[in-house]
């Protein structure tokens, strides 16, 4: 997660000392990037909910949906906010998502793959998380066999370092998967991400362009966490969001899931890993 979220403004420990303990620059803690307007935040939230209901919705469809909500946006504005919220339609498209270098794009390895054990296949993705007065990004990694979330983290941006940090922490905690699948976003088609997986001898798999269903298990997880927690409990700040997700994740791991024979992800993962 973003370490700045752990700084407690009401603590007896000074901000300077807290930043020193966490290893972050005090100037970066006080820096507040220019955020989106309240109207743009509403547009992003509406689009985030709509893409879960209509995964093929592109810019024009979103524009029409917003018009039905009496929100009138230009094509360019809708496209920019979709990019900002990391919202991607699942049909082949141009220029909607930012790709990395072609030399770091790898083929999809999961077609007709029989998944029979934990740590065989992990899937990773990043999703926009709306808040009361802003938004953050959640990176999550799911073990496909057990549906257990082996790693997750919050960040303020879509930078590759935040996602790679989640991968490294998951590997350090749970061991290496045989295959790690992602989309072709720039966070995963970059030198640092690819070289780390190669160094760890983890096979790299990537969705076909515009095929979010290739990463179906993490896509289903986004729908679950957003409808069961995020939309119902809009957080006021990053620390509350982190703590809320952590508590929800405990419940998610320890309840029955229909997709795995009404078993609990934690039990399947711990027994099989």
Quick summary:
This protein is 41% helix and 14% strand. By secondary structure, it is α/β, with parallel strands linked by helices. It has three domains: 1-32, no CATH class; 38-84; 102-272, Nucleotidyltransferase, domain 5 (2-Layer Sandwich), CATH 3.30.420.
Structure explained in plain terms:
Pfam families: HTH_21 (PF13276), rve (PF00665). This is Integrase. GO terms for molecular function: nucleic acid binding. This protein has three domains: 32 residues, no CATH class; 47 residues; 171 residues, Nucleotidyltransferase, domain 5 (2-Layer Sandwich), CATH 3.30.420.10. It is 41% helix and 14% strand. A five-stranded mixed β-sheet has the order 3-2-1-4-5, with helices on both faces. Helix 3 packs across helix 5 and helix 4 crosses helix 5. The longest helix is centred in the N-terminal third of the chain and has 16 residues. The chain is globular.
The CATH architecture category of the largest domain equals: 2-Layer Sandwich
What is the straight-line distance between the termini? 25 Å
- CATH homologous group name of the largest domain: Ribonuclease H-like superfamily/Ribonuclease H
Mean pLDDT: 86
Write out the strand line-up for the largest beta sheet, numbering strands in chain order: 3-2-1-4-5
Could you list the spans in which at least 5 consecutive residues all have pLDDT below 50?
92-98
Q: Which structural class do the helices and strands define?
A: alpha/beta
Oligomer: single chain
The run of helices and strands is HHHHHEEEHEHEHHH
Main sheet: strands, sense, barrel: 5 strands, mixed
């Amino acid at each position: 997660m973003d370490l700045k979220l752990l700084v407690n403004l009401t603590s007896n420990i000074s901000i300077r000392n807290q930043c020193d303990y966490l290893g972050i620059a005090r100037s970066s803690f006080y820096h507040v990037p220019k955020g989106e307007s309240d109207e743009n935040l509403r547009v992003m939230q509406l689009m985030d909910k709509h893409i879960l209901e209509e995964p093929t919705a592109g810019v024009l469809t979103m524009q029409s949906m917003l018009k039905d909500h009496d929100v009138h946006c230009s094509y360019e504005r809708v496209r920019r906010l979709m990019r900002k919220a990391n919202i991607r339609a699942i049909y082949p498209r141009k220029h909607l998502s930012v790709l990395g270098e072609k030399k770091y794009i790898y083929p999809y390895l999961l077609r007709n793959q029989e998944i029979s054990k934990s740590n065989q296949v992990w899937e990773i993705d990043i999703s926009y998380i709306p808040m009361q007065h802003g938004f953050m990004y959640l990176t999550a990694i799911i073990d496909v066999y057990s549906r257990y979330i082996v790693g997750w983290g919050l960040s303020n941006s879509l930078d590759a370092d935040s996602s790679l940090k989640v991968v490294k922490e998951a590997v350090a905690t749970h061991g290496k998967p045989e295959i790690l699948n992602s989309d072709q976003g720039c966070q995963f088609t970059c030198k640092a991400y690819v070289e780390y997986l190669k160094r760890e001898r983890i096979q790299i798999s990537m969705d076909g362009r515009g095929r979010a269903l290739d990463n179906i298990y993490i896509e289903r997880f986004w729908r679950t966490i957003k409808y069961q927690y995020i939309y119902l409990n809009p957080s006021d700040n990053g620390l509350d969001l982190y703590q809320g997700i952590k508590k929800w994740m405990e419940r998610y791991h320890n309840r029955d899931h229909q997709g795995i024979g009404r078993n609990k992800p934690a039990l399947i993962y711990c027994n099989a890993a």
